[in-house]
Amino acid sequence: MARTIKVALAGNANVGKSVIFNYLTGLHQHIGNWPGKTVEKAEGTLHFRGYTIDIIDLPGIYSLSTYSIEEQITRDYIVQEKPDVVINVIDASVLERNLYFTLQLLELDRPVVIALNQIDQAARKGIQIDSKKLEEILGVPVIPTIATKGAGIFRLVEKAVEIVERGSAKKKDYIKLGREIEDRVEKLAKMIEEANSQYPPRYAAIKLLEGDEAIEREINRVSPELVKVAKRFAKEIEEETTKPCADLIISQRYEMACKIAREVERFTPPPRPKLIDRIDELTTHRVWGYPVMIFTLLSMFYVIFTAGGYLSELLSSFFYNAEPLILGLFGAGTVGELVWSAFEGAVAGLTIVIPYILPLYIILYLLEDSGYISRVAFLMDSIMHKIGLHGKAFIPLLLGYGCNVPACIGCRILETHRERIMAVFVVTLVPCAARTVIILSLVGKYLGMQWALALYLLNLLVILGLGRLAFKALPGEPTALIMEMHDYRAPHLKTVLKQTWFRILEFIKFAFPLIILGSVAIKSIEVFGLLEPISVMLSPITVGWLGLPIVTGITLIFGLLRKELTVILLSALFGTSNFLEVPGFGPVGMVVFTVVAMFYFPCISTFATLVKEIGLKRTLLISISEVLFAILLGGVVYRILETILV
Amino acid sequence: MDNSETGKRRVPLAALREGESGTVVSILPSHGRGRGCGFVRRVMEMGLTPGARVTVVSSAPFHGPVEVLVRGSRLALGRGIAERIIVEVDEHNG
Fold first, then answer.
1. How many beta-carbon pairs under 8 angstroms link A with B?
2. Are residues A336 and A242 in the same domain?
3. What is the rounded CA–CA span in Å between residue A600 and residue A629?
4. How much helix, strand and coil, in percent to the nearest 5, is found in chain A?
5. A13, A50, A557 from A59: Cα distances, Å
6. Is the pLDDT score of A477 beyond 70?
7. Which residue from A506, A507, A505, A522 is spatially nearest to A342, judged by alpha carbons?
8. Which of A27, A370, A605, A640 is deepest in the core (most CB within 10 A)?
9. What is the pTM of this model?
10. Is residue A404 a contact partner of residue A428, using CB atoms and an 8 Å limit?
11. Structural domains of chain A, count
12. Which of A168-182, A349-363, A414-428 has the largest mean confidence?
């Protein structure tokens, strides 16, 4: 019988965790989200020496407090799921900061193996690390690795298995904090041990002194007395040292990390000044950084949308050939129409979504892996701050002008749950290519480009306004940028491709059923002759409030599916492509219609993506409020234009 | 700027020029809403604890973030954060 071993990968962001994860799990992995969270969960399996090793890649974090959801997820996972081994991946070139995390991880009392990764990068910076000495000091195995070349990974797994086979060795000594804290930590830890909490005693003791709310709640359930004692201790420490207890613990832990790093690091002057430093300087330069950024992002945009457009064309001409086949098979009646609409939904998904998110994922991972995204965030931070987002959100926002679907997915690059939700919301307001079609072919064509531009401006103002509003309304810490700018490095292509592949699979599994369902639902409305009644039902809004012809209601319903089709449909329903001839439409109607179409609903593909990224409840909230907002704004615009122009 | 007992200049990190370095003295809590101490801790947990040596690498225009080198790692700090980190400026910076 094969035994199963649970292994968790933990560590800072950008240390090569996902490279190791992909190296170990190969094609046996599953990407999802942590239940109810916007945080990605990557799991995989490896068969090694008769063992089935389940590997989970925990989010990249810098500490084990509860500052972010990622930190909480990691902490809860390690404490509750009790992995047999935690592999702590650390970046050898930034040892001190990585050790700060390691020291906290060791307090969680799980067996730990350290992967001292990127030793090649460290060497390039002139840093040599004595891994044997580090092993002695920390009391856990340290394996030097170069994940991108696969070096040391075998030994890493070997070591992890060895630890499980050997069973937990003698209780290791913790690295001690300063006297005034250490004594109290030990006292508290003993009490916690007796109280039988699920948390490791020493860890819980320190967290209680730090005033960690989650742990306080947890301990309060087993023994309220303990929390009171901890509060008293913390107060005593504060009186003795005149510093907040939590700050003191952080400082001391960093001092320890610093001391350990100094003992094991040896510096030699770096071999030669590198091209990489030049690039680094150029890309964050206060003047030259911007042209470089604009060029890079425009090329990215260009590649995604031309590659996507080409692929999309190819796929749709292939699939639409199947229409006569399906109609022939199921008959041209109701059944045939409905089956075709389901098929069409899938085709829409395949031809609109996949061709764009495929290149998007690849480019996004390349940018992120190489380190360029953090440079863009650095340059754009002050501008993005105006809508309450930080610099990284600039990239998804820009992508939104092409298509909202990849843009919403792109919001994953943001660090916190709150930022992701904010960014996703703003992104859905950005006029994508399909909405651009509406703007240009209606307003641009009949009223002139200045009107089209005015609409873009209006859109920008709305983004600014609603962005700020959401920023104020969402609870949580105001977004302030604290971001690591790791050194530029060549992205690991194999990892990038694997990451892309599994995320696309995940997307298809999740979003396609929704897209197909939506497509069938709208087709049913048509097939069962409900279009008329529904547009009559909508007429108080479309005719009464917005001053539009009654048939526009139908086009807006179809627009839920694909917005670029609304104009074509409009001309079919009006029976003319010269909209100026249509009675009751005219210039004002066009502007109002376009404004509504611009904001009223993220299309069905975006909707499905949103559900996947942020959950159904938040998606509905965003969609409904956008529909209401679009109607409100449309009516206001109608009234303003009527008074100005008449 | 006020002088400490050591006679060294104390300024917000945001006031350092590119290439200048100093030692973190304190972090002022954010006066905005939310958990004020959460902010201080987050800054400290990235390595900017009192006593840490910090060098400004570059700063973005339009009142943008500051890039600093601290404990061997490079961090981008929003201007608002850099304004609340008080440092003692090294003398030889001139």
1. 127
2. no
3. 7
4. 70, 10, 20
5. 8, 28, 40
6. no
7. A522
8. A605
9. 0.82
10. yes
11. 3
12. A414-428
Please choose, from the candidates A399, A615, A613, the residue with its C-alpha nearest in 3D space to the C-alpha of residue A506: A613
What gap in Å lies between CA B51 and CA A243, rounded to an integer?
14
pLDDT in tens, A596-623: 999 888 888 889 888 888 888 999 999 9
Do A607 and A511 belong to one domain? yes
Separation of alpha carbons A565 and A124, rounded Å: 55
Number of H helices, E strands in chain A: 30, 10
* Domain boundary, last residue among A229, A250, A267: A267
Q: How many whole angstroms from its chain centre is CA A489?
A: 22
Report, as an integer, the average pLDDT of A73-84: 92
Residues A466, A338, single domain; the answer is yes
Same domain membership, residue A579 and residue A446? yes
- Write down the H helix ranges in A392-492: 394-400, 404-410, 417-429, 433-438, 445-447, 449-473
Amino acid residing at A405: V
What are the beta bridge partners of residue B69? B55, B74
Query: In this structure, is residue A246 part of a structural domain?
Result: yes
Residue A173 domain-assigned (yes or no):
no
- pLDDT at residue number B94: 45
- B72 near A CB under 8 A: yes
Pair A261, A369 in one domain:
no
In a domain, A300, yes or no: yes
Q: How far is B37 from chain A (nearest CA, A)?
A: 9
* A171 occurs within a structural domain: no
From chain B, the residues in CB contact with A483 under 8 A are 75-76
Same domain for A569 and A536: yes
Q: Could you tell me if B62 lies within 8 Å of chain A, comparing CB atoms?
A: yes
- The answer for residues whose C-beta is within 8 angstroms of residue A350's C-beta and 6 or more apart is A315, A319
Whole-number pLDDT of residue A481: 80
Six token digits for residue B42: 């987050």
Final residue belonging to a domain, choices A247, A267, A287: A267
**Does residue A140 contact residue A147 with C-beta atoms inside 8 Å?**
no
Domain B10-93 class in CATH: mainly beta
**A126: which 2 tokens?**
């002139």
Is B25 in CB contact (< 8 Å) with chain A?
no
Domain of A190, CATH number, reads: 1.10.287.1770
- The answer on pLDDT for A162 being more than 80 is yes
Place of tokens 């009391």: A139
Instruction: Retrieve residue A88's tokens.
Output: 């702590």
Other residues' Cβ atoms within 10 Å of the Cβ of residue A347: 21
d(CA B85, CA B76): 13
Interface test with A, best of B53, B74, B79, B81 (most A CBs within 10 A): B74
Helix (H) or strand (E) holding A40: strand A40-48
d(CA A227, CA A216): 6
Contact A105, A64 (CB under 8 A): yes
Host domain of residue A405: 273-646
Report whether A151 contacts A143 (CB < 8 A): no
Token pair of B7 as six digits = 């006679």
Q: Among A5, A23, A156, which residue's Cα sits nearest to residue A90?
A: A156
CA atoms within 13 A on the CB side of A375: 26
Does residue A468 surpass a pLDDT of 80?
A: yes
| CA angle, A348 then A354 then A360, to 5° | 140
Mean pLDDT of A369-381: 87
Contact A482 B60 (CB under 8 A): no
Same domain membership, residue A287 and residue A245? no
* Per-domain boundaries in chain B: 10-93
A233 and A258 housed in the same domain = yes
Report the CATH number that the domain containing residue A136 is assigned in CATH: 3.40.50.300
- As a whole number of angstroms, the distance between CA B65 and CA B25 comes to 20
What is the amino acid identity at position A140? V
Compute the average pLDDT of residues A554-559: 82
H helix and E strand count, chain B: 2, 6
